[in-house]
Amino acid sequence: MRKLISILGASLGAILLISGIYLAIDGGAAATKFTLFGNQFSSTTVGIPMMLIGAVMIVLTFWRILASVDHLLSLPDDDRKS
Predict the structure, then answer these.
(1) pLDDT tens for each residue of 34-72
(2) What is the SS3 assignment for 10-78?
(3) 26 in a structural domain
(4) How confident is the model over 16-31, as pLDDT tens digits?
């Protein structure tokens, strides 16, 4: 289940990042304002916030994967499950 969530999180982040780049280049104009982790962002194009949210999702997903791998490697050999 964790593997599925990691794959879906990274995939959704990549889709948002690529779509945001496309919309930023193509000119998807709309006033956008959102709050992410307590910081408020505003933009005149939809692509920039999409890129930001996608990049944050990718970074957080891989950060959690690396933390899980680090935790797994710190376990004794007898406690590891394949």
Answers:
(1) 888 888 988 888 888 888 889 988 998 888 888 888 887
(2) HHHHHHHHHHHHHHHHHCCEEEEEEEECCEEEEEEECHHHHHHHHHHHHHHHHHHHHHHHHHHHHCCHH
(3) yes
(4) 889 888 888 887 778 8
How many domains is the chain built from?
A: 1
Cα separation, 58 vs 56, in Å, equals 5
In which domain, by residue range, is 60 found? 2-68
Q: Does residue 59 lie within any of the structural domains?
A: yes
* Structural domain includes residue 63: yes
Tell me whether residue 81 is in a domain.
Answer: no
